[in-house]
Amino acid sequence: MAKAVNNGSLSLLRRGVYTVQGADPDIVSAFRENGVLTCVSACRFYNLWQLLEPKAVQGPSPLHLSCGSGLARAGVVDHTPCIHPRHPYLPVAGLADVLIHALRCRPELEALVMVQSAVGHGLITTDFLRKKLQGNRNGAARSVLNLVLPRADSLLEVLAHTHFVRAGLRVRMHVELPGVGEEDCLINECLVVELDGGTHLEGKQVKKDQYRNNATIKGGLLALHYYYVDVVHRPGDWSWRYWRS
Asked: pTM for this one?
């Protein structure tokens, strides 16, 4: 080990901890700070959805850790101590702590998509999280759990559902329509909304969507399509604001 440090193939991070070239910088930082990654900094280790803002708005992101010391660290958001089993071999908090920290730390929609993906993949339940979030100080976190859907195939669906509900509209998700098939959203029983990801831009899919639109209109309903950028980055510009009345 000493020879490897001398020749540069290893670096001594702190006593008993060595790193190789190209090591994951977040993992290295967690070891350096004697903490575990949590909240949004742990999303990728559990394949959780993330609501990412444009880089120009987001800027440099602080690292979210649970260090337990309470000491301020530059560039670090230090969360409360973890109380659930952590990742089996990485300095990463357990999924329950990751979500609890996110629910207390992040804005509503950002925390919501994380919880929705974990629930959707069967990794945890909202009932379990709700039991861990008792008391008045966790009221906002529990309100986020109320927005989790029984089924959401993408973060677009859970975000759109939340925006529609917040606008005072009646929304049903994954509605089967005769002659059309399953639609993402049915608003006020008169408007179909489809949420289009990247695959919907492919030629074959575009033609299929047009036929479905025709069938929807023939069935007496209106149809609108929205894309990722509409749902995630500019929901305030959606044209449903103008037809709500």
From this structure: 0.83
